[in-house]
Design goal:
The protein is an all-alpha fold. 44% of the residues lie in helices and 0% in strands. It is flat, with a radius of gyration of 15 Å. The mean pLDDT is 94.
Length: 106
Amino acid sequence: MIFKDDFPSTPPKCRFEPPLFHPNVYPSGTVCLSLLDEGKDWKPSISVKQLLLGIQDLLDAPNPEDPAQADAFQVYMQNKQEYEKRVKRQAIQFSEDVVRKQLMGD
């Protein structure tokens, strides 16, 4: 999460590094969620906890009405079993990368 000086007047930018394979995450890693959009549902009263819970919900249940990544969206819509397989493979890879970095002292 990246917070500007005028937070909470403006929402933070939420980004995954490295980017996730997910219909609502742009190829850059930026999360596509209405709570994070000033023109949609952002309100200064929204807490960081609420944002994190909203992102967690979105990761668990993608919003097909607001796709941000064409490949992930197509796989999700056409073959949910393949989508789940790719997400699990990605989770394993990320966890292995984290462990490797911890062992190497990065």
